[in-house]
Amino acid sequence: MACDRDVVTVVVPYPAGGSMDSTMRIVADAASRATQRSFVVRNIGGGAGTIGVQHVLQQPADGCTVLAGSLTTLVLAPAQIASAGYGPADFQPIGETGQTDYLVLAAPSLPVDRLQDLPALAARRQSAIAAGHPGTESVQYLALPILARQLQIELLPVPYKGSAPMLNDLAGGHIDLAIVASPAGAVAAEQGRAKLLARLSEWMASDAGGRTPPLESWAGWFVPQAVSERSTAWLRQALLDALAAPEAVQALQRLGLTLPAATAQQDFAQRYARDAQRFSPRPGMVAPSPAHRR
Q1: Coil, helix or strand for 184?
Q2: What distances in angstroms separate CA 32 from CA 8, 138, 201, 241, 245, one per listed residue?
């Protein structure tokens, strides 16, 4: 059945203040205006995003709880975290909310202005440069060794539970670098809390060493497979209407997101399946876990 509650909850599996949180609050507000129903963001962080994902799977399959899912939480995390307890096939995509590039940021106090300045700094220090990332299952973590190889420097990976605490430490000079999704990273750079050194895609065009990590990450709305077509159709239209609102488009683009055309939404499910197959630890899409089959 379709959601019969007054409130639709959009679960963001990260703490408040990060890129996903900022994006989904804009989309939820626009969906509320478009449908005259309340779309409310709820942050459930922890476990590299897996706790929030598991929470959504535990809710009634009535379409009243939506997951703000991403390449990291739905594909990379279950491929690398044995205890995740879910796989990409446990969810069906409602639609894409946008794609984002990654920014390489430096602490404001770090005496560099470009990535090319880092080798000289590393030589003067004679020590590794500390680089923050939001978990070993993230695109950012996968990019660090490639970036280090291209610059011929040593990067010390420093894990965080989300981009918000990572940016706080970067602003305070507790770490040297961070690779951050564009929405949160662009705001931090504009506020002077970080220096923008480069867009990651400018440095990651190719990787001769093996599987190349994606240079952009997508995000979207997802629901468990058991949610009915009636509910998914209504949510899909709500998302389309939200992303057609001029004020939402402008706000999302200011954060650095590339928004999908309405006609391209039908391709999102195919992209989701392709990425799940590409990054799965074994051929094919990760099978639904028995605990989540309904």
Answers
A1: helix
A2: 9, 31, 34, 10, 11
Tokens of 202: 């400018």
- List the structure tokens of 263: 């006609």
Tokens of residue 140, six digits? 């950012």
Q: What is the pLDDT of residues 221-264, one digit of tens each?
A: 999 999 999 999 999 999 999 999 999 999 998 888 889 888 88
> Residue 269 corresponds to which tokens in the numbers above?
């499910």
Name the fold adopted by 102-202.
Answer: D-Maltodextrin-Binding Protein; domain 2 (3.40.190)
| Pairwise CA distance, residues 203 & 152, whole Å | 13
To the question of pTM greater than 0.85 for the whole model, the response is: no
Kindly state the tokens that stand for 50. Answer: 């897996």
Return d(Cα 22, Cα 56) in angstroms, integer: 20
Cα separations in angstroms, 198 against 150, 173, 279 = 14, 19, 26
Residue limits of CATH 3.40.190.150 in the chain:
7-99+216-292
Spatial distance between the Cα atoms of 161 and 166, rounded to a whole number of angstroms: 8
Rounded to an integer, what distance in angstroms lies between the CA atom of residue 52 and that of residue 13?
Answer: 4
Tell me how far apart the alpha carbons of residues 155 and 144 are, in angstroms, rounded to a whole number. 7
Average pLDDT, the chain: 86
CATH 3.40.190.150 fits 7-99+216-292, yes or no: yes
List the one residue out of 112, 57, 110, 106 whose CA is nearest residue 85: 57
Query: Sheet containing 65-70: which strands, arranged edge to edge?
Result: 38-43, 7-12, 65-70, 217-224, 91-100
